[in-house]
Amino acid sequence: MDESVFYIAEGDPNDKHSQESFALATSIHNSQQHASFRQADAPKNGAILSGSGQGERLIVAAPNKALLNVYSWGKESPDQRIPLPEALTCLALVEHPNTRLFSEFHRNSEFKLPSYRVPWLLAGGSKSGKIYVWELSSGSLLCVKEAHYQNVTVVKFSKCGTFLVAGSDDARCTVWKTLDLIAVFDGDNDESSRNFKPYLAITDNTLAVTDLVLNEPGVINDLKLYTVSRDNTLRIYDIITKQLLTTFILSEAIESVVADPAGRAVYVGLSNGLIRTIPLYNINPNTSVLESIGGNQKIITVESDPNLKFTFLHHQQRISADANKTSILHKNLNNKKNDTENANKPIHVTKLAISLDGTNLISGDSLGRVYVSDIVTRQVVKTFTPCNSPISQIQVSSAPFEALNVSSNSKVDKKHRLIPQLKRVLTGRDATEHQLNLEIPSESRDESDENFAVWLSRKTQEDLEFKNLSGVNSSVKKVANITSDSESKKELEDKLAKLSSAYTQLRSKHEELLKEHSKVLNNKA
Amino acid sequence: MATKRKKAQKAKDFVKPKLKVGKTAAKPDNHTDTSFTAKTISLPNQSIAKKSKSGVSEEQKQEIDLSHHLSLTKHHASATRKEVLIYIDQHLPSNPSLYKQIFTSIIPLILDQSASVRTTLVALFNKCANMQPGILELHIRSIALFIHSAMTHLHPEIRNSSTKFLNVLVEHAPQSLSKSFFVKTMRSYFTLMSWTLTDDKKSVSLAITTSAAIGGSVKKARIGHLAVLKAFLQASLFPQLSDSAESEINPAIVVSVHPQSYKYLIPAATSQAFAPLKLFANELPNNSKDIDDGKFHISDLDTITAEDLDTRRKVFVDVFQKPVVKNLNSLVKEGGEVGREANSCMTIIDNLEQELKKVAEDE
User: Fold this and answer.
1) pLDDT given at position A410
2) Which comes out higher in pLDDT, residue B280 or B162?
3) pLDDT tens sequence across A217-265
4) Of A282-291, A349-358, B57-66, B294-303, which range is least confident?
5) Average of pLDDT values for A429-434?
6) Of residues B95, B269, B279, nearest to A313 (C-beta)
C-alpha cells in the first residue's frame, strides 16, 4: 500500500490558458510520483479527486469559467471539458452509501472493482451562493439551491453521505440533508419540494468561513463539524444535536483546518504562515486527570506558544522559496516592484491534510509550497515540487502499489472512460425516465484452484445464510461419536470419580475457610 | 640593392623555423605575457568565517550562516569538517524546521574517514537529541542505514567507531531502534565481530580470514562493541518501563475513565510511531520456501517485522542465541577487559532465559 498526496494550485492570473499550471499526485513515503495533470488550476477547494489509482478521476472547476475539466488517473491532459450553467468555486463528491459499503467489503475479496466507476453525487458551490448537485452516473442536475448570499468557499459531504455542509464568504455555514437536496422525484407539488430549509444554519461567525472538516465517525451520532473563519475562530459543532460545543479563539485569521483521524487534535493553518496544533484532550498537570478540552459551549482563547510545542514554523521561511523561485529568467521577466510586493505579502497556509495514521501533516501555502511534516517533532519530512501560485487543494488517499502504477495494457479506451455530460437544466420529475447504467464487476476469485470440497462448504454457508432468519450466524458442528469401548469408558469414569472427590474436598475446605472468615469478622465486630 | 634586400626579407617569411628537441619553442611575435604571481588565494566559498551581508535581519543571517556551514560538511579537509561540526554544535537553532537540513548533511559523516570528525559527530548527535526530543526517531531510517553500513565497512577504523553511533540510538531512541531494526542490527553485529550465524564451512572460513585481518586496534574496540551490544540487548529484549523523555506521560498517576486511555493520546516523544509496522513499505517478496515448524530460520530474517517484544525474543532465541553464546564464551576465555564485557553480555542472555522460563511456567 502506498499513500498518495494530490495537490493543485490556483494558477497564475497572468497565465491565461493555464499553460504553466500543473497538479501532481506524489507518494508521501517514497520518492515516486504517481500522476501529473497538465493545465490544471482551480479556485480554493475547487478540485476533487475521487481516489488514487487506475479508473479514478480528477474533477476541476476552471477558475472564473463556467467549465469543468475532467481528468482520468494516468492521463496528463483533460479528458473532458464540460460546460456548466455557472462558474463553480468549490466541489465535493460522495459515494452512494450502498455501493460504498459494497466496495469496502469486496475491495480485496470477492469482486474486482468495476473498471468504469463514478461516485454518486457531485456537489458544487458557485460565486452567487448557489449549490448545484449532479448525479454523476446519469449526468442529471438534481438540485439548484440558493443557499448563501455570497461566494460559497467550501462544500463537503459527510463520509456517510447523510449531510452536505457548505461554508461561505457571507460568514454563514449551512448543513443540508442530502435526501432533501435530491428529492426531485418524490414531491408532487413544486413548492414544498423546492423550498426546503437547511437542516442547520450556523450564523455564529462574523467574517468569511474559509474551511471546514467533518470527522468520520462509526455512528452518525458522533458526527462533528469543525469550521474555521477569518474572524480568528475555530468552532466545533455536534451536527445531530445542532449544538455548538467549543469555540477556540486564535491570534490570527484562520485559512485552513484538518482534524486528527482519531479526533485527538485539530490543526489550523493561519494567515501568518503558522500551523497551530489544538489538542482536544490533555492531562491536567495539577490533578493528572485525562480530560477533554472544551465542550459545553466553552470559549477558549488559544495562548501564544513561546516554546513552539504546538506550532509548525516552516511556512514562515521565505529564503528557500526565493531560492526556488528566483531563477535569473524569472527575475528578468518580473519587474522588481512585483518581487518586493511578493516579499512583503504575508504567507497564508492555504490547505492542510493529514495522513492515514495521523502522524504526518501535509500543508500548502500561498507561495505554492507543499510540505509533509511529522506531527510529533514538527519537522519537515518531505518537500514537494512547488507550484507557481497558492495551493488550492490537497487530498491524501491510499491505494495498493499495483493500482497506483498505471500499466499500458489495462488502459480503457476513451469512449468507456468518459462521464456523461452534466445537464444544465434541472431534471424532469418523471421518475420513469431516470435510467442508470452500471457495470457489475466480475468475481475476482480464481476458479482454477478451487476444489469440490471448498465449493461444497461455500454452498452450505450460502444455504445457511439464506435460511437464517435471525441476525446471528451460527452453525452446528457435529462431533464424531466416540466408539464406546469399555476401556475408554472406564478411564472416563475414573476421571469423573477423581474430579468429584477433588471437588468435594475443595468445597469442604472452602466452607471451613468461610466459617473461619466470618468468625474473624464477628470477633472484630 | 633594394630589391635584393626585399627579396631576402620575403624569403625569410617562408622559411620554416627549425624546432629542436628539448628546447622550448620561441614565442610568436604577438605573444602577451599573462602570468601573474599572488601571495594568497582566497576561496570565500570554502572558508568558515564568512562575511555576513548587510541589510538582512538577524534571524535570516543566522539561517544563511547555517546553510553555508552545512555546505562545508563536504569540505575536503578533515580539520575543516570537524570545525564545521563544532560550529553547528554551538549554534544549533531553536527553530525545529531547520533540523531536516542539518541531519541530511551530517548523517553521511558517520562514514567519514577522519576519526576526529566522527567523535565530534557523536557529540553533535547527542546534543541534537537533547534539544529536539524525537528527532532521532524521525530520521532513524537513514541514521540506521548509515550505522549498519559503518558496522560492515571495509575500513577497520570506521567499523570500530560504528557502535558509538549505535550507542546514541540505544540511549535516545531505544524503542524505535529495536522495533524497526532489531534483526538488521543483530546481523550487522555478526559481521562486525566476524562471528558466523551458521556452521557451514564456507562462512566459517570467510570469518576466519576476516578475523585474521584484525589488528590490535580492532581487538581493543571489541570492548566498546560488547558494551553497546549489552545495552542494545537490554533495550530490545526486555520491556521498557519508563521512557527517557520526561515529557512522556506517567501512566501510574493518570486518572481516566479507562486505565489504558492515555495510550491513545498523540505521543509526546515518539515520532512515526507506526513506521515499524511497514504499512507503506514496498518490499521484495521472499522466495525461499517456508519451513513450518513454529521457529524462525535464517532465511526468514529479511521478512520478519520484529515490532513487538515477543517476536524479538523469539527471533533472538531461535536464530541468534546459539551462535552469540558460543562466541561470547570464547571471548570470556580470552579474559581481561573483553572477557568481563562478554561476561556481562552473558548475564543479560541468562536473564532472558530465566524470564522466558518463568513465562512458560506461568502458562
Assistant:
1) 55
2) B162
3) 888 889 999 999 999 999 999 999 999 999 999 999 999 999 999 889 9
4) B57-66
5) 76
6) B95
Please, are residues A417 and A119 in contact by the beta-carbon 8 Å criterion? Answer: no
Asked whether residue A211 is domain-assigned, the answer is yes
B60 vs A30, A319, A401: nearest CB: A319
Point out the domain boundary residue: A413, A432, A451: A432
The rounded distance, in Å, linking the Cα atoms of A140 and A131 is 15
The whole-angstrom distance between A360's CA and the closest CA on chain B is 8
pLDDT, position A92: 94
Quick one: A372 and A499 in the same domain?
A: no
My answer on whether A334 and A236 are in the same domain is yes
A139 within a domain of the structure (yes/no): yes
Record: contact B255-A289, CB cut-off 8 A: yes
A480 falls within a domain = no
Mean pLDDT check: name the lowest of A139-143, A286-290, A320-324: A320-324
Q: Which domain holds residue A504?
A: 493-525
DSSP category for residue B260: T
Strand partners, A266: A259, A278
Band the pLDDT of A479: cuts 50, 70, 90: low
Q: Are residues A24 and A157 in the same domain?
A: yes
At A215, list the grid cell. 470527522
- Is A178 within 8 Å of A157 (Cβ atoms)? yes
- Number of folded domains that form chain A: 2
Question: Which of A1, A262, A319 faces B63 most closely, judged by CB atoms?
Answer: A319
CATH number for the domain harbouring residue A128: 2.130.10.10
Chain B residues bordering chain A (beta-carbon distance below 8 Å): 60, 63-64, 94-97, 99-100, 132-135, 137-138, 249-250, 253-257, 261-262, 264-274, 279-282
Residue A473 lies in a domain: no
User: 10 Å Cβ neighbour count for A367?
Assistant: 24
Domain shared by A514 and A417, yes or no: no
On whether the CB atoms of residues A286 and A292 are closer than 8 A, the answer is no
Percent of chain B scoring above 70 in pLDDT: 83
Q: What is the 8-class DSSP label of residue A244?
A: E
The edge-to-edge listing of strands for the beta sheet with A298-301 is A209-214, A224-229, A233-238, A243-249, A298-301
Q: How far is B96 from chain A (nearest CA, A)?
A: 6
| Rounded alpha-carbon distances, angstroms, from residue A453 to A197, A443, A461, A462 | 58, 19, 12, 14
Query: Residue B261: closest CA among chain A residues belongs to which residue?
Result: A290
- Mean pLDDT throughout A312-338? 53
CB contact under 8 A, B134 and A377: yes
A246/A139 same-domain check: yes
A298-301/A243-249 β-pairing: parallel
Residues A150 and A276 in one domain: yes
Residue with cell 518586493: A340
Looking at the structure, do residues A405 and A520 belong to the same domain, yes or no?
A: no
Q: What is the pLDDT of residues A195-230, one digit of tens each?
A: 788 999 999 999 999 999 999 888 888 999 999 999
Nearest to B172 by CA among B200, B145, B208, B144: B144
Does A375 touch chain B if contact means CB atoms closer than 8 Å?
Answer: yes
Higher pLDDT, residue A5 or A446: A5
**Is the pLDDT reported for residue A323 higher than 50?**
no
pLDDT in tens, B154-184: 888 898 899 999 999 998 888 888 888 898 8
Alpha-carbon distances, residue A9 vs A75, A373, B212, B341 (angstroms) = 18, 20, 62, 60
Pair (A19, A146) in one structural domain: yes
User: Please, what CATH class does the domain formed by B57-132 belong to?
Assistant: mainly alpha
* Confidence label for A447 from pLDDT (cuts 50, 70 and 90): low
List chain B domain ranges.
57-132, 155-240+292-363
ipTM reported for the complex surpasses 0.85:
no
Say yes or no: A343 contacts chain B, CB-CB below 8 A: no
Cell 629542436, residue located: B20
